[in-house]
Amino acid sequence: MFDLNGKTAIITGSGTGLGEAMALGLAQAGADIVGVYNSTSPKVGEEIVGIGRRFLGVQADLSRMEALQAVVDKAVETLGRIDILVNNAGIIRRADALDFSETDWDDVMDVNLKSVFFLSQAVARRFVAQGEGGKIVNIASMLSFQGGIRAPSYTASKSGVLGLTRLLANEWAAKGINVNAIAPGYMATANTLALRQDPERNRQILERIPAGAWGDPKELQGAVVFLASDAAKYVHGHTLAVDGGWLAR
């Protein structure tokens, strides 16, 4: 049920961190990979090819609407079909809410929420044309459930991802399209570097995590393979926390 042989997966933000780890996990389960990146070319492509899967790197600025359909077209042109979409790309801007700028609001919302909807729309249209359904996995956050501090646009965007996941599941489940999400906990990635380098914030975060450690991006591999596979055929509109117990605290 977890076998992804013959499937093609698009993963945005695949150049580093969570996206890189999930791309490798899906490839290990059998999928060919379309790795979408903005500035950092996915080094994981070599490893994916090394285990016998096909890999296509596509550079795209996901804040530009015209780039989204181009990603879909390139994937189909090169690999023939799309079966899985992982909306992982995301950015964050940190500042006090009293000082937060319109630019920092718009930049984050465009990548973290607007592109998630319109890329999902483009891929879902392809799923319908193929007539075999498909899987969409969005990457939410602990801040889909909590307010946090000093990240107003990030919190708003990730709360939106949770709601959008439910909406799309409601509309598309009958078309054989599963739409779900993963909410990573505090992972050791570039986005959390500032927090990990702040001794006080790092201590506060670790004290709150029952598992007692920052997460490794590879710990998302099992969750993304599950949600992308037939094992999750009857799972719709769910956001799965992979958080070391953070939300249970």
Largest sheet: 7 strands, parallel
Q: Quick check: average pLDDT? A: 96
Beta strand count? 7
Radius of gyration: 17 Å
**Helical proportion?**
40-55%
CATH top level is Alpha Beta
Cα-to-Cα separation, first versus last residue = 32 Å
Total helical elements = 8
The quaternary state of the protein chains shown equals single chain
Beta content comes to 15-25%
Numbering strands along the chain, what is their spatial order in the largest sheet? 3-2-1-4-5-6-7
Helix-and-strand structural type: alpha/beta
CATH architecture: 3-Layer(aba) Sandwich
Helix-strand sequence? EHEHEHEHEHEHHHE
Characterize the structure shown.
Helices cover 43% and strands 15% of the residues. The protein is of the alpha/beta class and 249 residues long. It has a single domain, classed as NAD(P)-binding Rossmann-like Domain (Rossmann fold). The longest helix has 29 residues, at 102-130. The two termini are 32 Å apart.
Outline of this structure?
The protein has 249 residues and is an alpha/beta fold. 43% of the residues lie in helices and 15% in strands.
Q: What features would you highlight for this structure?
A:
alpha/beta; seven-stranded parallel beta sheet; 8 helices; 43% helix; globular
How is the secondary structure organized here?
Elements: E1 8-12, H1 17-28, E2 32-37, H2 44-50, E3 55-59, H3 65-79, E4 84-87, H4 102-130, E5 134-139, H5 152-172, E6 177-184, H6 193-197, H7 199-208, H8 221-228, E7 239-242
Parallel strand pairs: 1-2, 1-4, 2-3, 4-5, 5-6, 6-7
Helix pairs in contact: 1-2, 1-8, 3-4, 4-5
